[in-house]
Amino acid sequence: MLSKPSPRKRERPAPIGIIVLILLLLASAWINHSVQHSKIHHPKLAETKTLMPPVLMNPLPVSAALPSLPFSIGESSGILWNLNTHQLLWQLHPHQPGPLASTTKLMTIYLALHQLPLNRIVTISPTAAGTTGSDMNMAPGETFTVKQLLYGLMMASANDSAVELAETMGGHTANFVAEMNHEAQALGMKGTHYADPDGLSPNSVGTAWDLSIIAEQDMQNPLFRTIVDTREASIPHNPVLRNLNGLLFLDPTVIGVKTGWTTQAGFNLVFAATRSVDGHKVTLLGVILHGQMGFPPEYTDAEKILQWGFSRVAQLDQKPPHQGTL
After folding, report:
1. How far is the C-alpha of 217 from the C-alpha of 108, rounded, in Å?
2. pLDDT, tens digit (0-9, with 9 covering 90-100), for 219-253
3. CATH class given for the domain over 77-318
4. pLDDT at 16
């Protein structure tokens, strides 16, 4: 006699929470696959440039007071960094905005070094050739390499070179200026707004803090460091191209960086020097803005700041390491 089959147990439905979790995991996997797929098959996403974040920062506690300079200077704002440690040594109204003058060109060359082949031949436009102020004696139809334009841009502070580079990269200076401002925001230059590629406009404004950010970014490029440390060079139509940064001729430890002057801006100077401190090389980067007495007095101020800064570094090196927490 066959035994009566036992009744089949009813399967319990899976808890709702588990079902929801599985659905969420499947959705997440699908979204991740879609994003990766779009990055591969959409050139604009695949070719987006990854910017190096600003390196300069203040590692000191917010409450820590920076020392004041033991002497007076003729500029209304400034800043000094130790590039070896990225330590802020001194500041004077570092976020106070004002006209940038030709220090604007630190962004122009930054973009050019990232976008243009150095050996590219550029034909000078009438607009570039007609740009006023310091120049490279350009004439419409003449040709230069990008590298030659960069030497003129930094050494002679050539406004015609700045405009030509802007047109070459952006097609029109307005397009290039928009890119300058986009890049400034990406680098954390919150107090900066550009109105042109050369700094002739008083509407190109920025701060000492922001100028130290873009200068530090530029100094990471070997060609930039070579150009701003060159005292004399020769390029087409400019057999003797002399660097306008007079600080280079006064102090052999100075390695750049850029001067700027307009009536509205006054005298601006971004400067850097490398010296030996306790047997190792230290590089300081400084900015002083809106001097009214001319460049020779401003160079004197920069020299005094550098001397004080290197002495300060030596003092800090001799102190025992801080044992507390920030």
Report:
1. 12
2. 999 999 999 999 999 999 999 999 999 999 999 99
3. alpha beta
4. 57
Query: Could you give the CA distance from residue 42 to residue 59 in angstroms, rounded to a whole number?
Result: 40
Closest CA to 241 of 155, 169, 139: 155
Among candidate residues 319, 118, 152, 117, the one with its CA nearest the CA of residue 230: 152
Residue 137: which residues within 8 A CB-CB, separation 6 or more?
A: 237, 238
What amino acid occupies position 55? V
Distance, in Å, from the CA atom of 182 to the CA atom of 194, rounded to the nearest integer, reads 10
Token pair listed for 259: 């001067």
**Residue 198 to residue 135: CA distance in whole angstroms:** 11
Q: Is 228 exposed, middle or buried (0-12, 13-18, 19+ CB in 10 A)?
A: buried
Measured between alpha carbons, how far is residue 212 from residues 129, 130, 142 in Å? Answer: 30, 31, 35
CB 238 within 8 A of CB 160: no
pTM of the entire predicted model: 0.80
